[in-house]
Amino acid sequence: MTQLRAPLTFPAAMTRIAGVIGWPACAALARRNERTVRYWSEDGCNATPPINLALAYDDAYQAAGGDGAPFLDAFAHQLQVSRDQHDACRRELAVAVADASSESGEAVAAAITLTYTNASPRLALRALAEAEQAHSAWGRLIRRLTPFLPTGTGPIAGDTGGTHQ
User: Fold this and answer.
1) pLDDT for residue 30 is more than 90
2) Single pTM value for the model
3) Virtual CA dihedral for 28, 33, 34, 40, nearest 10 degrees?
């Protein structure tokens, strides 16, 4: 039975290369047994060939008439997905900053109206409602900022944020 693999992944790249050059040639190129190399083609496997071997596989694949470079294509795709996630995180942060700023301005404006000598209880309720909305917006902003914190230990200088932890 043929196992379906997600396209543009390292297991799919290994399977695609083996389909052209064969599993024995893949094992010989890696200087490992065939079972180890086949394991690299399984979706549940976290192990992958080292970069220099992935390059050698792509080269052998092309030399045998294969189209493209499976490991390079998979790497480029996965890098683009990661970049898109980082960009999405930044866009969501920008929206949260704009929302918190807007809600804060409305809360301040509503609170200033209470300084008037004829301020009504209705204006006080409106100011309180606006302050609660601003408080919620700042909570959303704080949640959007946390992915930009580094994980683990070490200096935080130079960390550009993102969605990975």
Assistant:
1) yes
2) 0.55
3) -100
